[in-house]
Write a structure and sequence with these properties.
The structure is a single chain. By secondary structure, the chain is mainly beta. Helices cover about 5% and strands about 45% of the residues. The chain has one domain: Metal Binding Protein, Guanine Nucleotide Exchange Factor, Chain A, CATH 2.170.150.70. The chain contains one helix and ten strands. Keywords: Metal-binding, Zinc. One of its GO terms (molecular function) is metal ion binding. Belongs to the Gfa family.
Length: about 120
Amino acid sequence: MPNSKTFTGGCHCGMVRFECTTDLAMVTACNCSICTKKGLHFAFLPPQSFQLRAGGESLKEYLFNKHAIRHQLCIDCGVAVFARGKKPDGTEVVALNVSCIDGIELAKLTMTPIDGRNR
């Protein structure tokens, strides 16, 4: 990732905090049921580019549909901070809720449309 930056962020109440390195080259605008209802925009990172800095004990896991993606929500404020899962080839991945990055301005990011509703 040639233009990668290190970002920090977390949930609304601050109990869950992370640090990650990414270029934000692909941020999803997915129309699946959960992304639509929660307003999620994900960037997909290799696990080694994501570090949970605080609040691991404050996470609740949410699974739905095929139970392939393990969504991680703060038990206090309810924010979906990130998810863990596997790419179609089996590679582990972290799906970071870009809205949780400190100071992020979603309007300045290029969103990649994903048709999750029809998969």
